[in-house]
């Protein structure tokens, strides 16, 4: 830390924070006896708090966001220059960075053509849900309105998104939820036995379960399916290779729109621009947020095919025919200005290739860690998005207690390494350590992360 802030400055910041800030995902009673953690500075993959303690960030801002690392001056300068020229105008009009980033983004997404700007992943998913519902009213008399979501997937914090949320503990105490959202089973092969699934062709079996739900609900009532390409907060679940092709086949069979939630996986996290691109599928909607600008400005996008867009291109004399929606801060120009530079950095520095290479290396290192610690039941991941599921016994695959998994992350934090863990999400299965280091990660960074986990597992589980 460069000492820009004096100790008096930081002491005041801490007191102001304790007195007035309502933190995300935190029980504030704990601040009665300790200070909140204030992140003061970041550079590359490292951050410093108010005490000057350095941490290697293995989760890209704690929520899978800072894909190109901290301290990128060219992104900050692009935002500064754009804000001086034109900071905001409502999205009914266009902007220079909005048009240019949309062009660059669509170039990475063959088969898709339109970008609807908003300011968060939750909001991007809400836009897609609203489009599906409006299409149902415009084309199907309101009947084909149901939206399928997958167990253990997560799509955002609004009541609408929680209605499509497959994590009971995130939903608890926030109901009643919106009608018309229907759950389908997850696709975690490691937990196939819990589903009574066969040991052969699990991916096809998991896809078939979606079809069974469609037939139960009535195909003429189902408008869309909304899954993550790789489940994130539900346990870093990588689908079997035979899963996605079968899912797309089912959607086409019943004229169901496929909405892929790329809020976590998008813009390089898995080693391709988007997670769905590993599987050769062609979605109708793709939503994204976190890594689009690596956290340097707020931006989210709901991207659609021209087929979807054309469903709203009706006679202008009908005042109810267009998509009657607005996102106030979707009109901010800082987001697309930052996103243009973010994408340029990924291309110029070969970060997709680095993500694949370092992701393979980290997967190998975590698997080697499993050879030393029987508590690791499964290692899985795609690119620099990985998880290790902790179990009491490899034969029974009984999950460790959530408190034990959290003790591992606390130990890593004490060592100066920030790792993630599923928590307060899926009852009984909050037992997966989560890793999503920035796409700039080196072997030395990964070795430090794995070493911290190694030590923590030894201390927590003996």
Automatic annotation (TrEMBL):
The keyword Kinase belongs to this UniProt entry's keyword annotation: no
KW Transferase (keyword) present: yes
Parts forming coiled coils: none
Cofactor names: pyridoxal 5'-phosphate
InterPro entries assigned to the protein according to its UniProt record, in alphabetical order: Aminotrans_3 (IPR005814), Aminotrans_3_PPA_site (IPR049704), PyrdxlP-dep_Trfase (IPR015424), PyrdxlP-dep_Trfase_major (IPR015421), PyrdxlP-dep_Trfase_small (IPR015422)
Gene3D superfamilies, per database record: Aspartate Aminotransferase, domain 1 (3.90.1150.10), Type I PLP-dependent aspartate aminotransferase-like (Major domain) (3.40.640.10)
Keyword set, alphabetical order: Aminotransferase, Pyridoxal phosphate, Transferase
One of the Pfam families matching this protein, by short name: Aminotran_3
GO MF annotations, alphabetized: pyridoxal phosphate binding; transaminase activity
UniProt family annotation: Belongs to the class-III pyridoxal-phosphate-dependent aminotransferase family.
Protein name in UniProt: Aminotransferase class III-fold pyridoxal phosphate-dependent enzyme
